[in-house]
Amino acid sequence: MASIKCPKCGAPVPFDTGVKFVKCPYCASQIYVDRSGAGFYYALPYMVKENDAIGMFKRWAAGSTKAKDLDKLAQVAGVKRQYFPVYMFKRDLNGVEQVFIETAGSTTLPGLHSLKVPAGDLKIFDPSFDTQGAELVKPDIEMLSYLNTLPGKPKEQALVYFPIWKIDYVFNQKKYEIVLDGSSGEVFSAEFPMRSSTAYVAVAAVGFLAIAAEGLVATSSMLAAAILIAVTVVAVFGAALFVARRM
Fold first, then answer.
1. Distance between alpha carbon 134 and the CA centroid of its chain, in Å?
2. CA gap 98, 148 in Å, rounded
3. Which tops the pLDDT comparison, 246 or 64?
4. Rounded to 10 degrees, what is the CA torsion of 24, 3, 15, 47?
5. CA–CA separation, 150 vs 91, rounded Å?
6. From CA 141, how far away is CA 102, in angstroms rounded?
7. What's the DSSP call for residue 67?
8. Are 82 and 137 in contact (CB under 8 A)?
9. Could you tell me the residue ranges of all domains in the chain?
10. Helix (H, G, I), strand (E, B) or coil at 174
11. Cβ–Cβ contacts within 10 Å for residue 215, how many?
């Protein structure tokens, strides 16, 4: 059950979502629940368990842009479950509802400015909500700091506690971190060990020089140049395949 502050006596007034009028149990005032101005609190349940989060991190680390064998050599140094606060603003833009998400907490963690709140999964955040032992990050950015910059007319605004996994890992004696969306499994990372492109550039450069030289050979013997070019193409392909598997 959500609650709103009584505008007359200041007491917290509980109410069910969907109602427009509620009576203050302390001063008997009738309160109009305006969803465009009320401070609703929601939370998203964790859909990704800890073991699944580590498995998703390993699959992300096996990507083609990551350092060779990062998925096998990365050492997980810490896994933390957190509920991170974001503001959800529903606005009416020429008859069309749009949702804007802004951070409610200061952070340097990657991806938290790009979170997406899935429709239909929101739960009322109250003392009965099970955080599953997650750390609750307190909001330290006022909602008012965003209100004047948003387009359209307000329909609803709320504070949403968003589930994330913060995973720290070590690779080649350097520490990195990722944030994993505890709702969808999406991975965010500001910095990660990248696969070196030096070997690929070297293969390309050697192939270019070889074909250029064979172009000169073609001025005197087309057959010899064709044979040399065929050999070069096979050699470059083989070298590229070797680099892709070993580097």
1. 18
2. 16
3. 64
4. -170
5. 8
6. 10
7. P
8. yes
9. 2-32, 40-188, 198-246
10. strand
11. 12
Q: Note the pTM of the prediction, 2 decimals.
A: 0.67
Tokens 């590229």 belong to 240
Angular region, 112: left φ>0, alpha ψ -120 to 50, beta rest = alpha
- Identify the bridge partners of residue 3 per DSSP, sorted by sequence position: 14
First-residue to last-residue Cα distance in the chain: 56
**Using CA atoms, how far apart are residues 142 and 154, in angstroms rounded to an integer?**
17
8 A C-beta contact, residue 47 and residue 168: no
Beta bridge partner(s), residue 181: 164
Positive or negative CA dihedral for 131, 136, 142, 145? negative
**Could you read off the pLDDT of 81-106 as tens digits, one per residue?**
999 999 888 899 999 999 999 998 88
Query: Cβ neighbours of residue 90 under 8 Å, at least 6 residues apart?
Result: 97, 98, 99, 154, 155, 156, 157
Burial of 167 (0-12, 13-18, 19+ CB in 10 A): buried
Point out which residues pair with 89 in neighbouring strands. Answer: 100, 157
Kindly state the tokens that stand for 170. 């070590």
Nearest Cα neighbor of 133 from 17, 60, 49 is 49
Q: Are 203 and 243 in contact (CB under 8 A)?
A: yes
- What's the rounded Cα separation, in Å, for the pair 66 and 10? 54
Measuring CA to CA, how many Å separate 56 from each of 145, 186, 187, 245, 246? 35, 9, 8, 22, 24
Q: Which amino acid is at 144?
A: L
Asked whether the beta carbons of 30 and 6 are under 8 A apart, the reply is: no
Residue 175's pLDDT band (cuts 50, 70, 90): very high
